[in-house]
């Protein structure tokens, strides 16, 4: 099955900012589309992007002519060709956003050509030994937004509830119930304006301090009878936090001591490999200390983190590295090092649910997908429910 045509055009993301969408048509007339998200809290080692207009122009001028007649099922070869056309280590010539949109379109087209759901096809090329069961990743549900993702006074970016179950429908139901119970609590305690949401659909009011959201979440979880069924976590995104190292460490220790706190992402800045390791040594061995800005889905950064024993978990975001193959290679490296793998959306999302198929397909331990609100987040939740049905 060969690629007949490839076109691109700009679309708006969930923040009303321009991104790129690709349409790929196969020789038999079947077609797929793929659009790429973009972040606001961006690590300096991520693949470089270009404007949406430039990405469209680059796809049409440099990529489309080279991909006509190619077999989309040869994913690694296509991704290597895309990197070769770009010719730079950071994808700055064509843009990581342009390259990823094409890479995702190709893997979608390959799954379509093979007559397989996308997650099953991804499982085959990424992790063929993993069984096709009905369980999926644990959901990391961002119910309170702060930092760069909200206009409130919270220093930290994401306050996460993490259902313990890996049954997707159960996780979705628990997340939805917690979200709506939290809405009721916020309205009663802080007024209607507290129900305004941030970039990822989580509530974004101001609080007395950075700990109050977890106090409120603990009350909400207890009221629902979920006290033993839900863990907590946080994306500190500390590269953007103006707080002393001593205060950060003291705060993290408080969270681990007082709550069922199992996940801490980017507790320090993006070059703080040693500080990450020291924190891991001080806190519970059960805590997932994850790199995002530290590692940027980049195997070279991940190797440095491994050499320094900085993390025991890693965020995987395909748009940080720019191709499906390179994201899969990062997953394989994480598995080699026995790290937990958490696949993540971005704050500026589209209605493309590829990332849900990717999370299930590569057998992720966790999946960050925002709150059960806003259409671009709901698209991922609904896709998970579909995947569970397909896996039966």
- Tell me the β content: 15-25%
Helix content: 40-55%
CATH topology (level 3) name of the largest domain: TIM Barrel
- Based on the structure given, which CATH architecture of the largest domain is correct? Alpha-Beta Barrel
| Overall geometric form | globular
- Main beta sheet, described? 8 strands, mixed, barrel
Main CATH class of the largest domain? Alpha Beta
Ranges where pLDDT stays below 50 over 5 or more residues in a row are none
Query: How many H/I helical runs?
Result: 13
What would you give as the CATH superfamily of the largest domain?
Enolase-like C-terminal domain
What count of domains describes the coordinates?
2
Series of H and E elements: EEEHHHHEEHHEHEHEHEHHEHEH
InterPro entries: Enolase, Enolase-like_C_sf, Enolase-like_N, Enolase_C, Enolase_CS, Enolase_N
Binding site for (2R)-2-phosphoglycerate: 157, 317, 346-347, 368
Binding site for Mg(2+): 235, 265, 292
Domain Enolase N-terminal: 3-122
């Amino acid at each position: 099955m060969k690629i007949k045509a490839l076109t691109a055009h700009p679309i708006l993301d969930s923040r009303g900012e321009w991104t790129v969408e690709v349409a790929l048509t196969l020789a038999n007339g079947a077609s797929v589309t793929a659009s790429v998200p973009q972040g606001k809290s961006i690590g300096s080692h991520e693949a470089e992007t270009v404007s949406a207009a430039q990405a469209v122009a680059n796809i049409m001028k440099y990529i489309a002519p080279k991909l006509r007649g190619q077999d989309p099922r040869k994913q690694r070869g296509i991704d290597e060709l895309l990197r070769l056309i770009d010719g730079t280590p950071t994808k700055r010539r064509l843009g990581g956003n342009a390259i990823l949109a094409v890479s995702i379109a190709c893997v979608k087209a390959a799954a379509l050509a093979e007559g397989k759901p996308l997650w099953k096809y991804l499982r085959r090329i990424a992790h063929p030994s993993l069984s096709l069961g009905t369980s999926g990743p644990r959901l990391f549900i961002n119910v309170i937004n702060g930092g760069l993702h909200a206009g409130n006074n919270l220093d930290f970016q994401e306050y996460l509830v993490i259902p313990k179950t890996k049954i997707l429908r159960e996780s979705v139901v628990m997340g939805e119930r917690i979200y709506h119970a939290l809405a009721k609590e916020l309205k009663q305690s802080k007024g209607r304006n507290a129900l305004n949401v941030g970039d990822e659909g989580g509530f974004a009011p101001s609080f007395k301090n950075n700990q109050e959201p977890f106090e409120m979440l603990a009350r909400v979880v207890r009221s629902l009878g979920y006290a033993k069924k839900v863990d907590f976590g946080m994306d500190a995104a500390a590269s953007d936090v103006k707080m002393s190292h001593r205060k950060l460490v003291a705060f993290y220790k408080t969270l681990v001591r007082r709550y069922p706190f199992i996940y801490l992402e980017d507790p320090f800045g993006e070059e703080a490999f040693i500080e990450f390791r020291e924190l891991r040594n001080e806190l519970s061995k059960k805590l997932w200390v994850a790199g995002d800005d530290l590692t940027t889905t980049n195997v070279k950064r991940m190797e440095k983190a491994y050499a320094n024993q900085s993390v025991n978990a890693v965020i995987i975001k395909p748009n940080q590295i720019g191709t499906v193959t390179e994201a899969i290679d990062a997953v394989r490296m994480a598995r080699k090092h026995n790290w937990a793998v958490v696949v993540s959306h971005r704050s500026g999302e589209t209605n493309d649910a590829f990332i849900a198929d990717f999370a299930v397909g590569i057998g992720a331990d966790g999946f960050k997908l925002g709150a059960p609100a806003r259409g671009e987040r709901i698209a991922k939740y609904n896709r998970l429910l579909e995947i569970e049905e397909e896996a039966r």
